[in-house]
Design a protein that fits this description.
Layout (H helix, E strand, L loop, with lengths): L1 H19 L8 H15 L1 H10 L4 H13 L11
Length: about 80
């Protein structure tokens, strides 16, 4: 139930932001895709900040985990899904 409530809260927040920007839902395709890209990149900020704060190397994270999450599984990638 918790993921559904979090999803609803996030949707409400995005709805408020859309209203403030005078963008109506459904957004034009370009705006929607840019918004989705922002979501994907925004998801990576917290793990990246945690690694930086802990003094852990971030290059491997960006190359492996982050890139795989943002770009999806690329053709020819034989590694198992995370």
């Amino acid at each position: 139930m918790k993921p559904y409530l979090l999803s609803l809260a996030a949707g409400l927040l995005v709805g408020v932001i859309y209203s403030l920007l005078n963008v109506r839902s459904p957004a034009p395709p370009t705006i929607a895709l840019v918004g989705l890209l922002g979501i994907l990149l925004g998801e990576q900020i917290v793990p990246l900040a945690k690694r930086l704060y802990a003094g852990e190397p971030v290059t491997a994270y960006l190359r492996e985990d982050c890139a795989r999450h943002v770009m999806g599984r690329l053709p020819g990638d034989e590694s198992p899904k995370a």
